[in-house]
Amino acid sequence: MQLTKDQLLSANEPGLRRHESDYNHLSDKLSEAGVAVEPVVDALSKFQVAIPSWALGAGGTRFGRFSFHGEPGTLEQKLDDVGILHALTQTAGAVSLHIPWDTPTDYAAVREHAAELGLAFDAINSNTFQDQPGAVHSYRHGSLSATDEGARQQAIEHNLRVVEIGEKLGSKSLTVWLADGTNFPGQRNFQRNLVQTEDSLRQIYAGLPADWKLFIEYKPYEPNFYSTVIQDWGTSFLLANACGDRAFTLVDLGHHLPNTNIEQIVSTLMLKGKLGGFHFNDSKYGDDDLTVGSVKPYALFLIFNELVYGMRNNPQNPDLAWMIDASHNVKDPLEDLLQSLEAIQLAYARALLVDQDELATAQGDHDVVRCQEILQNAFRTDVRPLVERARLSRGGALHPLGAYRQLDVRRELVRERGKHTVATGL
Amino acid sequence: MQLTKDQLLSANEPGLRRHESDYNHLSDKLSEAGVAVEPVVDALSKFQVAIPSWALGAGGTRFGRFSFHGEPGTLEQKLDDVGILHALTQTAGAVSLHIPWDTPTDYAAVREHAAELGLAFDAINSNTFQDQPGAVHSYRHGSLSATDEGARQQAIEHNLRVVEIGEKLGSKSLTVWLADGTNFPGQRNFQRNLVQTEDSLRQIYAGLPADWKLFIEYKPYEPNFYSTVIQDWGTSFLLANACGDRAFTLVDLGHHLPNTNIEQIVSTLMLKGKLGGFHFNDSKYGDDDLTVGSVKPYALFLIFNELVYGMRNNPQNPDLAWMIDASHNVKDPLEDLLQSLEAIQLAYARALLVDQDELATAQGDHDVVRCQEILQNAFRTDVRPLVERARLSRGGALHPLGAYRQLDVRRELVRERGKHTVATGL
Amino acid sequence: MQLTKDQLLSANEPGLRRHESDYNHLSDKLSEAGVAVEPVVDALSKFQVAIPSWALGAGGTRFGRFSFHGEPGTLEQKLDDVGILHALTQTAGAVSLHIPWDTPTDYAAVREHAAELGLAFDAINSNTFQDQPGAVHSYRHGSLSATDEGARQQAIEHNLRVVEIGEKLGSKSLTVWLADGTNFPGQRNFQRNLVQTEDSLRQIYAGLPADWKLFIEYKPYEPNFYSTVIQDWGTSFLLANACGDRAFTLVDLGHHLPNTNIEQIVSTLMLKGKLGGFHFNDSKYGDDDLTVGSVKPYALFLIFNELVYGMRNNPQNPDLAWMIDASHNVKDPLEDLLQSLEAIQLAYARALLVDQDELATAQGDHDVVRCQEILQNAFRTDVRPLVERARLSRGGALHPLGAYRQLDVRRELVRERGKHTVATGL
Amino acid sequence: MQLTKDQLLSANEPGLRRHESDYNHLSDKLSEAGVAVEPVVDALSKFQVAIPSWALGAGGTRFGRFSFHGEPGTLEQKLDDVGILHALTQTAGAVSLHIPWDTPTDYAAVREHAAELGLAFDAINSNTFQDQPGAVHSYRHGSLSATDEGARQQAIEHNLRVVEIGEKLGSKSLTVWLADGTNFPGQRNFQRNLVQTEDSLRQIYAGLPADWKLFIEYKPYEPNFYSTVIQDWGTSFLLANACGDRAFTLVDLGHHLPNTNIEQIVSTLMLKGKLGGFHFNDSKYGDDDLTVGSVKPYALFLIFNELVYGMRNNPQNPDLAWMIDASHNVKDPLEDLLQSLEAIQLAYARALLVDQDELATAQGDHDVVRCQEILQNAFRTDVRPLVERARLSRGGALHPLGAYRQLDVRRELVRERGKHTVATGL
């Protein structure tokens, strides 16, 4: 199923007058305050976030899963889903595959289908946290960190194979999330496991094409509950430095201990030129994988504030790979992703409104109250008209979620695919 | 020092055109969406938050304190400070005293001065967490929970004396924050301490005038670091039930373990008719006592959403006593309080925009996406024009912080009081 | 498979001399310090912990599961597994079933088999957190808290049906763990859900036989990640009070926010006569369900210290239902349970060594240092000889884990059951 | 006041028989298990921990302080206090000074007095978190991270001055705890502050004598409650690398977010040769500064297990500077320190009992259960006889706390110093 321009135009029609009025009012107001809105709208319209192929079906917990209807059963259908998101939002122009869940059979067809939908292939993801049917070695006792050479080599080779697949699709980076760790004190030797991991990552790095990047994710706990080999940004940073210039840390918002100041980590990594990618989601307790911006929207804004600062002031840091990494246990996955995309755009828009010069001046004056006011003014502004304008400018929907419902997309998908399909993934 | 109506009028003048435009635009937009703004503005204009007398000077940490200038050195000056806040915001029409720090000598004069400034005396606070010069018994080993009868009786009598003082000023409630607890496992007997506390609170309750309420605060840790007698809402609730109908739980936003769902606690207490008071502040790590709304404004909104729901649907719960309980280590205390008052009004305004009927319908339909949209729509709306309008309607400042700076209030206070005064308190 | 007395006797043989020496030395030492060891050994030998039927197979996480060999495929085999644990430890004399996973077909045979193994049926557990095949109503939107009457009635009836099953087996209590909650702000109405839950529990309570107890578990999060209806002990306590005298709170060690003082909760509940049951496990981050005592053994001891105090001083509180509720992702489940049983006995033994009178005296003297010493002295004592003696006194194994390995139990189970059986459960 | 050998001998007398029996029993038991005890006792007797000069008086919180009696009023008296601790325990043979609180006037006299007491001067500590009377620049807006050059240079020079003082006393390392940070989002620029800090530390490092080391402490929050410049080990590690080979990370046990796996951090730092120092204390909630081992003794043991491993296997890492950094709000400071010293020795002793070869074998076999058993066996062993033996071997007290009380040390100190002296410090 694909959405046509006509469908979107007619869905947008009723809201245009309101949008014009809101946009003009906001534009006037911001101009009066010395802020030009066109560059903001322009930046918003260029911002593209990858959708992971595993986020298109219902998620679950260890206690079970309530399935959803019309889930994509094939890679082509997954691309279709992302195509729908992109048609509506114009900000989901990439897909991030997970191997082996999404291994293509006909590469040319997949590339063509993606191109047709306007989708690029962003960072590709390996999986060494589960045993695959027919695997020679089990990852029960570790993969890239394993002391068993068989399992470790199998994990390294899997990553290299993922790179090969990615190359055929046009990806330019590999994301390694290493779940390796332990459940009990003493279970493994921390130092040996770190040494093995460093060696494995270097081997993978050595096998990367010259224009590829390696992203090293970190996470404090889960699925292991005593220790995780790459437990924090410090460990990831150390490993990225050990690999080389094209190895970077990847930050997933949900992968932090309670109360971590994530925006400061982002800032440090960009200063050091080592922030490579970003996984969006939200959480209240742990790696809850909730809809972006649904729990802590101000924290998301503060992070974007550092990202915008870094993108402007840190040429030493590469362009970032952006991805949503959320799970949807109680919502239509596509609706959830639309909400996430909206929340990301809103946070970005607000961060773009921050007058960095004014902020620097207030910081220089030690005017703490004024510094806070500057950030809060940006955050309190209703920036939805700017995001709407950015979408309209590229032919997207004024209100993606509204259009999705009005156009009855899910019913159509169920009609096409059947009710009880189950997407590969968790 | 007092601000005159003329001073405020002239400070407001330059911003009125912008305000009118913003207000009209928002008002139109909300009307179109079926929301009447007048009742919202009206509710905002009636909302009054007490300022604690100890929040008018610079705060500190155990590592030291950087002092501020022109702090109020007397109770009269403290009232003046609150008067300034109230003149600017029209939402700070009450003061909450702390005994012994603010024990009046001339009650009539204090009452008269407060009346002149339009200030009421809200809940009065006792202090049994510090030893006062000349005290017969030390609270080192506990106060209301003490097993030493001397210390315990002294603490009970102190509370009754605080009630007497409050009566003379027109207060109608006593807030008990009991810091009692232990630093080490085994230090005291949990059960004995709880029994003693229950008995002490009942004695205090028995001594309350018939139209007074007792508020029982809870806190998980600090200044004790292993256990605290009233560690959570459950313990406070149990004690309030043991005392009687006019004893209630008081919620301080900073007094929770990491990730606590505070809004649900608020909701449960109002359902059971046992939420008596509310202390506003914000925090990232513990009881950080930061400016309200400076770290987690969405959480504040969610809490207000429950408060608004409860105020409409829970006649079994009394009117709440609202107070700011923040500390100001790096800001002008009055500016900090202005920021807190603004944040409270904004959160309240957003909560008032939530269409409770529409939300109930979406909840009934299990339309999780729509439920989230309803809350986010309210939160994403720029409600500042509504809060401005509420202030203007009562003769306050359009932009309190701006007016405070423009009128050079702090310089005037320093001129009047001198640079190195120090307010009593922490 | 069952272990014979002879097998155990011969397994014990080589270690007896060492045990005698250790026991005598410790006994002398404690006697010298005024502590009689026989009552301690006696108490230890009487202590019985239930094994949940779902803990006999490998556990997993939402990221997958590495299976184990020789898992019990039937209820009879589950009983056999518990029988093995009990034969070895003499402290696992009860089983706690989970319905529908363990619904018996032939009740008489099941009862007979359990009796033969010396096992009682302790609290029985209902499940309304998953949809069962063929269920008319889904629990996707809640069960006991649901606003849909169909789902709610189905959940109530399921609980009553579980009670019927329990009655036929000799259980005397029902444990309700209610996973109901929400993933997003606004998703449901807190008050309505609590009211529904209270009503549902009252209906279940009304359907209990006169000699049954109702245990109400609480948990702050997971599988829901924004709110949980019964989020803390305060909510459970409130609901238990609403039900009646035979309704109690059940504490699961892993169900708390970071840094919660659990021992104080235990103490408060026993004082109020409302602690009904206890689920043992350990955790570092959340509800990690790790082996008891593997992460925080001192916290476990402190909790036992309160339990021992309560068992001696709180006649108002009933005898407790003890159960292990751990998961085993990387260990042989039976070995893991043996380690848990050992850790529980050790914590209990240490708590029994605390001289409560001496502690009360030190507390009365405000001798904080001495209070700490008393607890630490008990904890630092190597109490393994006492636990060994208690086991020997009942015909168990001196070293259960050693005997289990020496007798090659797992290999025998694999031989009997096959390698790839999978136990019902998570 | 100094304790004489005779006093200690007579205090030890009554317990010697018991000690001999316990030691012999344990020694036999361990020998039987293949563990030689002499090397353990030998290692214990060599282990020396520094006492910080600010830990000899009562501590407090921001809510107040309950003072203690007989606190040392001069640097000489502080040395006396440490001398008493060392005489009793033979494991407190160093003192760690804090400047400006302990700036000596007569260096020769101070050195001589320390030598007489058998005390060395370990790492010396600077203070740029408070303004000192007469200081030209305030640290209100930062010190080493400040954007104001005046304050920053003053802070750098203070550190260099501290090094000079340390040199005169024989110290060989400087510990920098940088409290710099912010209370509100936007208050300062993260990147600029980190750049300034790196530059400041390099200047200090450049001024160090060739045989000195620089220790860089980290802490997530407090006294600042939104951000801290050196918030975690990753930041400290990065800064130490930027300074050079003699710059290291210092780990303080209380300076971590909830649930952090500290032992893994220790392990990583030692592998990379960058762990320089260690501050001991314990905590339940934050930087509670409680007595070592009073809350989480097993975590302390696990950390020591990594330390022992690293000391044996990581020649790339220097000898560590050990210090207690606790506060004593409700205890006699000297008694508290005795309890801390005991807890450290016990954790070290237990870690020394771990058979590293056996552990490595079990890890290689993926025998998770056995790995856990090995650690737990060591931890469950009552190692007090080994620690006693180590103390006796050097002429210390069998039971330091008992001897301290029996010899009525505090009464003597009050007699000498008076009741109401107050030690400099927090």
Automatic annotation (TrEMBL), chains A, B, C, D:
GO terms for molecular function: isomerase activity; metal ion binding. The keyword Signal does not apply. Residues 1-10 have a biased composition (Polar residues). Keywords: Isomerase, Manganese, Metal-binding. SUPFAM superfamilies: Xylose isomerase-like (SSF51658). Residues 1-20 are annotated as: Disordered. This is Sugar isomerase. It comes from Neolewinella marina. The lineage of its organism: Bacteria, Pseudomonadati, Bacteroidota, Saprospiria, Saprospirales.
